[in-house]
UniProtKB/TrEMBL annotation:
This is DNA polymerase III subunit delta. The keyword Transferase applies. Its EC number is 2.7.7.7. Keywords: Nucleotidyltransferase, Transferase. It comes from Falsiroseomonas algicola. It is an enzyme of class 2 (transferase).
Length: 355
């Protein structure tokens, strides 16, 4: 009698969050930074350490991978291609394909992971030390060794100190590139040993081009709204588009525009909606957009521009204090696994002016 076939266990494939960045052939709005890197490489005196600084999601890691691909493909030793963008490497190039697949022997990327306590993401010291050993090895393909530290402000103190030793005595034919949204959180000794590139938010035209190509189903009104709340950050725009960012922005607008009436009847329904997702993504987006709306309104008032009517409900100093308090509330709610609905209700209570 034949046996019934044994059921096979489904193999879970771990998602690679870095794949969209590694395989992205485009770099919009940062031509000067790319040209600076290419010029330095062609000079024959390439600095061994760089730092790309700027707001989250504007293309810092994209620039890092673009530089790594171009450098490791030996393009610095070849004549420039007439009319080609800085650091351009065709998608069909073998180096491009291997890096996109995460299979290049001379490239390593460090990204924040959940720390030992499981509360916040950090770049661990063990990973930093492994990257240092990697940099000290002879390039496997005869060119360069490249380490990209994406989110360097999240280096553990021991990890930062370990990298500092490599910055002081860099191995030959190696490049270390840091990206950070908070350069002031890095050690001064690290900042003094890297060549800094400051990346600015993308202009409206570049954001429009990008959103039209990546989000073709959005109508012009939705694209305009997405570009406005993303504030020149393509990564943030895509995250908001995929995570119901426009719907959450509508909730934020409803809350702020209704402050004068003090109507609390919809508070619980709104808090339920914000806290619905178990991963906390809607809550994080709600608080981030709420704080962004407050900071934008305060800046407009400080510049003599017409702020939204709700800003007049309290002094500017109180709005600044409230902005800080909302940030702490979000951090504590996430770090201590507090009830998100109650956190939203707390935030709404703080926003409502006293009568």
């Amino acid at each position: 009698m034949s046996r019934a076939p044994r059921a096979t266990k489904a193999v879970e494939v771990e998602e690679d969050p870095d794949l969209p960045v590694r395989s992205n052939p485009d770099l919009l709005g940062h031509d000067h930074a790319a040209a600076t890197l290419e010029k330095a490489a062609r000079s024959g005196r390439l600095p061994h350490a760089w730092m790309a600084a700027g707001p989250p999601g504007i293309g810092k890691a994209t620039l890092g991978y673009r530089f790594a691909r171009w450098l490791m493909a030996g393009m610095a030793e070849r004549d420039p291609v007439p009319g080609a963008a800085s650091l351009h490497l065709p998608e069909e190039h073998p180096t491009f394909r291997r890096i996109a697949a995460g299979a290049h022997a001379d490239l390593r990327a460090l990204r924040p992971n959940t720390g030992d306590g499981g509360v916040k993401k950090v770049i661990r010291v063990d990973d930093a030390r492994a990257a240092i050993r990697f940099m000290a090895m002879t390039p496997a393909e005869g060119g360069w060794r490249f380490v990209l530290v994406d989110g360097a402000e999240l280096l553990q103190p021991q990890a930062a100190n370990a990298l500092l030793k490599t910055l002081e005595e860099p191995p030959p034919r190696s490049v270390l590139m840091l990206t950070t949204a908070a350069p002031d959180r890095l050690l001064p000794t690290i900042l003094s040993r890297v060549r800094r590139l400051d990346l600015s938010p993308l202009p409206d035209a570049a954001m429009e081009t990008l959103l039209r190509r990546l989000q073709p189903d959005l109508n012009p009104t939705e694209r305009d709204a997405l570009a406005r709340i993303a504030q020149g950050s393509p990564g943030r725009a895509l995250m908001l588009a995929e995570g119901e960012g426009l719907a959450i922005q509508a909730m934020v607008d409803e809350v702020l525009n209704g402050l004068a009436q003090g109507d609390r009847r919809r508070w619980h329904a709104l808090a339920d909606g914000v806290a619905a997702k178990r991963d906390g993504s809607s809550f994080a987006t709600f608080v981030a957009l709420l704080r962004q709306a407050i900071s934008s309104a305060v800046r407009s008032a400080a510049r003599g521009q017409a702020p939204p009517p709700w800003l007049a409900l309290r002094p500017l100093a109180e709005w600044s204090t409230l902005w800080d308090s909302l940030g702490r509330l979000a951090s504590e709610t996430d770090g201590l696994s507090l009830d998100r609905k109650q956190a939203v209700l707390t935030a709404l209570g703080w926003l409502t002016p006293k009568r």
